[in-house]
């Protein structure tokens, strides 16, 4: 749920500059749910009827969840997920009555590749290769929080699923490892990490990482769909589809009928209906004068400091998997004597995830607002902050206050704000939970809440049942 809330909140400034966002919202707050603040600006990209609604970032996460929930075997099947993406591009989300919104440049090009539905990893590589092997957007990171939940107790499986899902549309190692850091961090939080810093620093989270053959297998997986190892990697084997894992098209007509019935019973569509036929001349009327707050209610994201325990956990994830950048052969062409891309990328990952302050990430910088390391960097940075022990406003108290404060400040930096906030929200959601960690006035007013809750609850119930089976089969 944290992913969806961050996605919906961040839309307020997506594709703006920080200066432009300040002109519209000052230094906050931005109205969300039933909480007061500056209303979200209406323009061709964001409309009043879509307030408190998520975008393609969460759509793709939900498609990934639906793929996992269809097969129920704890594994992400890349072809199944690719076909779900293709269906979504054509038909949107009939369960929600929404089209496929805001598909990014890279994801859109990959999905139009003629081999996408049969060899998605090659399709992603072809697009990356045609762009000079220097295309590292954040589209894989925004959706893979759910692979940190599926089989969370089994890090080997978490890694396998995340790599499989990320590479369906993204080949660049920076995009893939960004997704991996997010998913593994979430899984380790669910395994009890992030509470005791000293223990997390020395804990062996995945014994397989000591195995040279396993580490090489991950490096080999990065090369799936490429020509680095000839036909073996260019045309990788995908697990043969079975009755349980083959793609099953959605019953569009039935789902539309179910949605209309649900909306009639719950009134979910009433908010949107009141704005039907709204004209551009009616946009942004009666907006309050923007004034900067002298006191933002807490010390702020850069002054509150890093929480030792969750910070140590995040550092353990980066330390464990940074070898995938340092040792990969999947890099752009290099001139003789030039610094290696591998070391440059590894240094960038660390500096983005553990910056001195948020300004170092330069989130609004064009044309790199969608750079993978900006996204995972601010996600980790924001989610590892301490709770302010003495905020000056009650709404910034505790875990909910931290969620509110970090969301405000990251969103006001603009750039690819919805994706940045979605990734940060997913990690914070794992850290604190829904009811204890996200402002009630926000999540209870999320559009499509009833359907979202039912869908996520079914997924979580199945995951927890499998976890209980795992515990019974592997007593400590």
Automatic annotation (TrEMBL):
<feature type="binding site">
    <location>
        <position position="419"/>
    </location>
    <ligand>
        <name>Mg(2+)</name>
    </ligand>
</feature>
<keyword id="KW-0460">Magnesium</keyword>
<dbReference type="GO" id="GO:0046872">
    <property type="term" value="F:metal ion binding"/>
</dbReference>
<protein>
    <recommendedName>
        <fullName>ADP-ribosylglycohydrolase</fullName>
    </recommendedName>
</protein>
<feature type="binding site">
    <location>
        <position position="55"/>
    </location>
    <ligand>
        <name>Mg(2+)</name>
    </ligand>
</feature>
<dbReference type="InterPro" id="IPR005502">
    <property type="entry name" value="Ribosyl_crysJ1"/>
</dbReference>
<feature type="binding site">
    <location>
        <position position="418"/>
    </location>
    <ligand>
        <name>Mg(2+)</name>
    </ligand>
</feature>
<dbReference type="Pfam" id="PF03747">
    <property type="entry name" value="ADP_ribosyl_GH"/>
</dbReference>
<feature type="binding site">
    <location>
        <position position="416"/>
    </location>
    <ligand>
        <name>Mg(2+)</name>
    </ligand>
</feature>
<dbReference type="InterPro" id="IPR036705">
    <property type="entry name" value="Ribosyl_crysJ1_sf"/>
</dbReference>
<feature type="binding site">
    <location>
        <position position="56"/>
    </location>
    <ligand>
        <name>Mg(2+)</name>
    </ligand>
</feature>
<feature type="binding site">
    <location>
        <position position="57"/>
    </location>
    <ligand>
        <name>Mg(2+)</name>
    </ligand>
</feature>
<dbReference type="InterPro" id="IPR050792">
    <property type="entry name" value="ADP-ribosylglycohydrolase"/>
</dbReference>
<keyword id="KW-0479">Metal-binding</keyword>
């Amino acid at each position: 749920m944290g992913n969806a809330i961050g996605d919906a909140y961040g839309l307020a400034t997506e594709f703006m500059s920080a200066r432009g966002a300040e002109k519209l919202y000052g230094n906050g707050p931005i109205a969300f749910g039933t909480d007061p603040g500056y209303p979200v600006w209406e323009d061709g990209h964001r409309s009043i009827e879509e307030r408190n609604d998520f975008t393609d970032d969460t759509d793709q996460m939900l498609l990934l969840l639906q793929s996992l929930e269809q097969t129920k075997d704890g594994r992400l099947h890349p072809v199944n997920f690719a076909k779900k993406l293709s269906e979504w591009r054509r038909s949107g989300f009939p369960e929600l009555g929404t089209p496929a919104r805001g598909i990014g440049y890279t994801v859109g090009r990959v999905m139009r590749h003629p081999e996408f539905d049969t060899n998605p990893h090659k399709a992603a590589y072809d697009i990356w290769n045609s762009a000079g092997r220097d295309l590292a957007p954040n589209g894989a990171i925004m959706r893979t929080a759910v692979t940190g939940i599926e089989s969370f107790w089994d890090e080997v499986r978490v890694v396998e699923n995340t790599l499989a899902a990320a590479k369906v549309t993204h080949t660049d190692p920076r995009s893939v490892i960004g997704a991996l850091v997010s998913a593994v961090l979430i899984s380790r939080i669910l395994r009890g990490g992030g509470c005791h810093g000293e223990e997390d620093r020395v804990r062996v989270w995945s014994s397989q990482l000591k195995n040279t053959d396993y580490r090489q297998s991950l490096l080999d997986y990065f090369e799936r769909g490429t020509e680095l190892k000839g036909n073996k990697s260019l045309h990788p084997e995908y697990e043969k589809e079975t009755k349980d894992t083959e793609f099953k098209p959605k019953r569009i007509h039935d789902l539309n009928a179910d949605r209309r019935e649900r909306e009639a019973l719950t009134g979910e569509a009433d908010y949107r209906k009141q704005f039907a036929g709204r004209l551009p001349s009616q946009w942004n009327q009666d907006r309050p004068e923007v004034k900067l707050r002298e006191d933002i209610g807490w010390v702020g994201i850069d002054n509150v400091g890093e929480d030792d325990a969750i910070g140590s956990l995040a550092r353990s994830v980066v330390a464990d998997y940074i070898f995938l950048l340092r040792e990969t052969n999947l890099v752009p062409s290099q001139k003789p004597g030039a610094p290696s891309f591998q070391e440059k990328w590894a240094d960038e990952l660390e500096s983005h995830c553990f910056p001195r302050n948020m300004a170092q990430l330069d989130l609004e910088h064009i044309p790199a607002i969608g750079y993978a390391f900006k996204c995972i960097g601010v996600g980790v940075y924001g989610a590892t902050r301490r709770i302010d022990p003495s905020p000056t406003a009650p709404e910034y108290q505790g875990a909910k206050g931290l969620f509110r404060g970090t969301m405000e400040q990251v969103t006001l930096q603009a750039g690819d704000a919805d994706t940045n906030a979605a990734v940060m929200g997913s990690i914070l959601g794992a850290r604190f939970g829904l009811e204890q960690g996200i402002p009630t006035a926000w999540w209870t007013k999320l559009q499509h809440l009833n359907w979202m809750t039912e869908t996520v609850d079914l997924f979580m119930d199945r995951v927890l049942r499998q976890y209980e089976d795992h515990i019974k089969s592997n007593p400590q």
